[in-house]
Amino acid sequence: MKMVLAIVQDKDANKLGSVFVKHNIQATRTATSGGFLRSGNTTFMIGIEDERVPEVLELIKETAHARKQFMTPAASLDLSLEATSSMPMEVQIGGATVFIQDVEQFHQF
Ligand code: 2BA
């Protein structure tokens, strides 16, 4: 069994949750924040049999989209940054950041 951790943008989270239900994939979602943008994203935790990992990855890939976003560093980062870095900058946010870990044990009581 594997644990798939998928960090996606909030805009894609509801659709992805529905896709998992439709495909009988059990998932837990939690509200998270990116360390860089400090804005909300969503992390799905999916415990899944090894052979279904490619299916999960494909569904995430199809559903989660990369987007560009403008951010003003001074508004969202430490004020210790120099004034020259306060120009709005474009950030490409990936469709999904995915980690896959081995699950040593799985219990449901
Ligand atoms: P954030 O940390 O808010 O990052 C949002 C986007 O900002 C990133 O998109 C990346 O394109 C950009 N970015 C991040 N750090 C940067 C930096 N130091 N300089 C310039 N641009 C930077 P993604 O790479 O697609 O990441 C989307 C979200 O996935 C991240 O939100 C974070 O919540 C998570 N993430 C990405 N890599 C991770 C990792 N290695 N470990 C844990 N979480 C990760």
Characterise this structure.
There is one protein chain. This protein is of the alpha+beta class and 109 residues long. It has one domain: Alpha-Beta Plaits. The protein has three helices and six strands. The strands form two sheets. It has a four-stranded antiparallel sheet. Strands 4-5 form a two-stranded antiparallel sheet. The protein is elongated, with a radius of gyration of 17 Å. It binds ligand 2BA. The site of ligand 2BA has 11 residues, from strand 5.
Write the layout of secondary structure elements.
Blueprint: E1 2-9, H1 10-22, E2 28-33, E3 40-48, H2 53-63, E4 67-71, H3 73-76, E5 89-93, E6 96-102
Antiparallel strand pairs: 1-3, 1-6, 2-3, 4-5
Helix pairs in contact: 1-2
Summarize this entry quickly.
With 109 residues, this protein is an alpha+beta fold. The chain has helices at residues 10-22, 53-63, 73-76, and strands at residues 2-9, 28-33, 40-48, 67-71, 89-93, 96-102.
Major beta-sheet overview: 4 strands, antiparallel
Order of helices and strands: EHEEHEHEE
Q: Note poorly predicted spans.
A: none
Shape: elongated
CATH topology: Alpha-Beta Plaits
Radius of gyration, whole Å = 17 Å
Number of domains: 1
Oligomer: single chain
CATH architecture level-2 label: 2-Layer Sandwich
Bound molecules: ligand 2BA
Q: Give, in spatial order, the strands making up the sheet with the most strands.
A: 2-3-1-6
The total of beta strands comes to 6
Q: What is the terminal-to-terminal distance? A: 18 Å
Helix content: 25-40%
Highest CATH level, the class: Alpha Beta
Count of separate DSSP helical elements: 3
Keywords: Receptor
Protein name: Cyclic-di-AMP receptor
InterPro entries: CdAMP_rec, N-reg_PII-like_a/b, N-reg_PII/ATP_PRibTrfase_C
Pfam families: CdAMP_rec
